[in-house]
Structures are given as structure tokens and as C-alpha cells.
Design goal:
This protein is mostly beta strands and about 400 residues long. The protein has helices spanning about 40, 150, 280, 290-295, 350, 375-380; strands at about 10-15, 30, 45, 50, 55-60, 65-70, 80, 95-100, 110-120, 125-130, 145, 155-160, 165-170, 180-185, 185-190, 190-200, 205-210, 220, 235-245, 250-260, 265-275, 290, 300-305, 310-315, 330, 340-345, 360-365, 365, 385-395, 395-405.
């Protein structure tokens, strides 16, 4: 693919990770309207919504309202529109082309502008890069866009998962919470990293430099090909672990004995293992990608200027680590139904008679269009022994299937 821009490749790893990399900076400027300027009042607070483990912000791009996932894995200024829907009134000039490279697969040619205006509460960010991927055939995210460095690179950012509030502070006014643990972070190639310790069930200890990625909805992504000491657990599930811009990311889900971040230990943790090196891991020597499955257990503050972040345990800290207990993986369809993509052999879904291609039209006797992807995901993790009734359509015929959840790893 011939690109019409000096900017080369952007990486996108959807669902499991939302990670971007861009070869070359884009100049952007940030301003704030009068009446709520962090330079005067010190801070701005914004409501957030948690969908799965993702943080959603309601913002504006031009005159268009947009829901955006907040992501430390996006290392460039601006916003990426992921093609979930057509968005009018962006008020930008898409004069360039750029290639979006998924975690695997071929690049996707996308439109790029550098004159975007992004409003986040009372903040107005001008001359922002706006990249628009082509419209997808089916929804792949529960948001329109991804935003990261435009926020993290300009402010001290505190994410309060308990109260679902985002606070942006002028560094001159920042006072750390004395009860929070402070840890160093490093910035490399636009990403931020930290150190963590993983103990496998063979008692082999791994010291990892891991990318801090709140856009990664899982706990930890590991790449077995990057380390001779990293091994798959005896019991794993071979399944889809995420979605790229162009195709699914396959791998294994298993457990490690423990993960330590700072002074905090987590036991019997579910992690994802990439089956092969992705385009993402080929570009990064780090073998860990620590995600919101762990990070959301803290109220967390990022101070990029001082290369520090702060952790304070919250109400999610002691939650058990669990995953989908049905053995089915599905995709949202634009008519509000779900299509089953994968049914794991010997899983509750398989034992119930579900097959790939089945369309889920009802969930516990409720129309599937009234059950969000987040709600459905929580239901599939709701605990062993829980019985779920799925109304499915196969070859034009509808019937109910009973699925009794069980813990498979």
C-alpha cells in the first residue's frame, strides 16, 4: 500500500489491547476556555463510564458527540475513530492517508486530518490529529474512538474507578495522595512501562518490563516467543484473545501463580498468551502488557512529566480473577443480536448444543438488543453453576438452549 503521508504505520490491537504506534510526531496545541482553566483552578473533574474494564469518555470532535476509550496505549496526540459508525460534523479536512496496522493481518488505509478540535469537558484541544478508519461490517468496540496522549501528555491524570471520575490537573497544583504508593514509569517509543514480577505455576519467576495499558481489558498479555523461561501452564484454553484491525488474535488463556506490582501481590491470576508474535510484539521488546484487569483494582494517577504513577487499592482490589465460563465467543451484529463465532470443545456451550453461526436473539428471555455487550460478558462470568437461557436462531428456526456455567481453568 502506498501512503500519501510521511507518517508510517499505526498499530491497533482491539478488545484485548488498544495500542497505537506512529513513526513521527504531529504538532498539536491545547487550550482551555475561560471559566474552568486548570492553570487557575488547578483541576477539572469529568464523569467516566466503565464498560467491561474500559474507560469511556463523552467528548466532542468538531460538532460531533463521540464516545472515546481512554488509553495509555495510544502514544500520539489526537484521536482514532475506529469505524464503529459514520460520524458527521467532525469539521476536519481529511487530506492525508495513513495505514492502520492491526495486531496481525494487513494494514488498513485510513483518512487523517491534523486540524481537529477536541472538546473534553471545558478543555479544548486544537490542531489535533484525527484518524478515521473505514466503517466496519460489524461493531468491534463499544465506543467510537480511542484517545490517549492528548490527555496524559498534558495533565496529571487521576482515574477514580470507585466513583467513576477522571481528574485532570495542572502539574503546578498537583499534590500526591499520601496513602498512595508511588512507582516509577519509563517512556519508550510513546509507550509507558513499569516493572512487575510474575511467578508461574512451575515456580519460575519472571521479572518483566511491562507496558502499562489501561486500554487492554485483560490482566496481562504475555508473548511466549519473547522469553525462553515463559511457558504455557499445563491447563489452558486455546481461544480468541482479542481482535485486531483486520482479524482476530488467537492464543491461550491460562493462570499464573502470582503477579506482583509494586508492593501488591495478586494470586491465581488469569493471563493471555499470544500464539504467535503479533505486529505489536514484533515492534516492542517488552514481553508483558499489563492491563485494566489489574490496574482497575487501584485508583491510579499518572504523572508523565515526573515519570511516576501512583496506586491506591480500591473496592475492586480483592475481586477474584475469572473469565468467560460458557466456552462461547460471539460478535455483536448491527441489528442488536449476537453471532456465535467460537464454541470451545467440551465447554458448557458445546454441551448445551450451541454451534458457530448460531444467532443469539434472546438472553434469559430478554431480547438481545436490550442486553449490552458488557452486561452479556458479566453474565458469562457470573459464577460456576449459574444457568443461562439463550434463545438462538439456526437455519431460520428458533429455540432455547440452557447453558450451565463452569470454571474451565
Amino acid at each position: 500500500m502506498k501512503l500519501k503521508t510521511p507518517f508510517q504505520i499505526i498499530f491497533l490491537f482491539l478488545t484485548t489491547c488498544l495500542c497505537l504506534g506512529l513513526a513521527g510526531p504531529v504538532p498539536c496545541r491545547a487550550t482551555t476556555p475561560s471559566g474552568n482553566n486548570p492553570a487557575q483552578d488547578g483541576e477539572i473533574t469529568l464523569p467516566i463510564t466503565l464498560v467491561g474494564n474500559h474507560i469511556l469518555l463523552q467528548i466532542k470532535v468538531g460538532d460531533a458527540p463521540v464516545s472515546a476509550i481512554l488509553d495509555t496505549g495510544m502514544p500520539v496526540e489526537g484521536i482514532l475513530l475506529t469505524g464503529e459508525r459514520d460520524i458527521p460534523d467532525l469539521n476536519v479536512d481529511f487530506a492525508q492517508k495513513v495505514a492502520i496496522m492491526g495486531a496481525s493481518g494487513d494494514p488498513v488505509e485510513s483518512d487523517m486530518a491534523t486540524n481537529g478540535i477536541i472538546e473534553i469537558g471545558s478543555l479544548k484541544l486544537i490542531d489535533q490529529m484525527v484518524i478515521a478508519m473505514p466503517r466496519t461490517d460489524q461493531p468491534r468496540l463499544h465506543a467510537d474512538a480511542v484517545i490517549g496522549k492528548s490527555i496524559f501528555g498534558n495533565y496529571i491524570v487521576t482515574i477514580d474507578y470507585d466513583d467513576q471520575v477522571l481528574t485532570l490537573q495542572d502539574p503546578a497544583y498537583f499534590k500526591p495522595d499520601p496513602e498512595a504508593e508511588v512507582l516509577p514509569l519509563k517512556r519508550s517509543g510513546g509507550f509507558i512501562t513499569t516493572e512487575c514480577t510474575v511467578v508461574q505455576y512451575n515456580n519460575q519467576e519472571l521479572q518483566l518490563t511491562s507496558i502499562i495499558d489501561i486500554g487492554n481489558g485483560t490482566t496481562l498479555l504475555l508473548d511466549p516467543e519473547s522469553s525462553t523461561t515463559l511457558v504455557l501452564p499445563e491447563k489452558t484454553l486455546a481461544t480468541r484473545i482479542g481482535r485486531g484491525a483486520t482479524e482476530d488474535i488467537m492464543g491461550h488463556v491460562g493462570r499464573v501463580k502470582s503477579i506482583k506490582l509494586g508492593s501488591h501481590d495478586f494470586a491465581d491470576v488469569i493471563v493471555n498468551y499470544a500464539s504467535t508474535q503479533t505486529n505489536y510484539t514484533q515492534q516492542n521488546s517488552d514481553i508483558g502488557n499489563i492491563g485494566a484487569g489489574i490496574l482497575k483494582r487501584f485508583d491510579i494517577t499518572f504523572d508523565y512529566g515526573q515519570n511516576l504513577f501512583y496506586l491506591k487499592p480500591n473496592r475492586y482490589f480483592d475481586e477474584l480473577f475469572d473469565t468467560n465460563m460458557s466456552g462461547i465467543l460471539s460478535s455483536n451484529l448491527r441489528n442488536g443480536t449476537y453471532e456465535i463465532d467460537i464454541v470451545l470443545e467440551g465447554s458448557p456451550g458445546s454441551l448445551g448444543g450451541l454451534e458457530p453461526g448460531d444467532i443469539i436473539v434472546k438472553i434469559n428471555h430478554q431480547p438481545s438488543s436490550e442486553v449490552s455487550n458488557d452486561q452479556f460478558g458479566k453474565l458469562l462470568r457470573s459464577g460456576p453453576g449459574k444457568q443461562i437461557t439463550l434463545g438462538i436462531e439456526r437455519d431460520g428456526v428458533r429455540h432455547d438452549v440452557e447453558v450451565t456455567l463452569q470454571r474451565m481453568i
